[in-house]
Amino acid sequence: xxxxGLNSSLIFxxxxxxxNCEKNDLCKDVELSIARTNHTDSLKIDGYYxxxxxSNSSMPFANIYYLYTxxxxxxxxxxxxxxxxxxxxxxxxxxxxxxxxxxxxxxxRVSNNTIEIExxxxxxxxxxxxxxxxGEILNDTTFVITVREHRTNxxxxxxxxxxxxxxxxxxxxxxxxxxxxxx
Length: 183
Fold this sequence. Notes:
Strand content: 35-45%
Strand order of the largest sheet: 1-2-3-4-5-6-7-9
Helix content: 10-25%
Structural class: alpha+beta
Largest sheet: 8 strands, antiparallel, barrel
Number of strands: 9
Distance between the termini: 54 Å
Shape: globular
């Protein structure tokens, strides 16, 4: 009987630890620190940027970054590299799925030749952390991310220096920036 009670208690603790931490008040949802501002003409926005390429796998992939005139940022991580280079990204998927995932949204700002991006990163436990990126704008179709910080509760937990080049590809139809996370 004692063994059953211990097993039940252990299962209960595991469920609590791996359930949604925000609902259990074990973490707080963090706000973005970059202020939302309208974007000017320093970078093209009628398409997407691809970069941060992972070529170490059997199927190389790239991260896709969408920038909007209203300062919103949307990412579609792990897209097929060949499709990204060719400008053949499927917008339907981003429109339907992306609206539901907070970890794909954020804000960006441009100051002189510097771009800053701040976005949420979804965690398996339901908590959101922040990814902050900063880089240099080379021209209106290219920027290089030189700093990436992983932040939790305002504290930098990890700093990377990726030196990731993002290149522009135009799109006839871009995903709409309407979402329920950044107003």
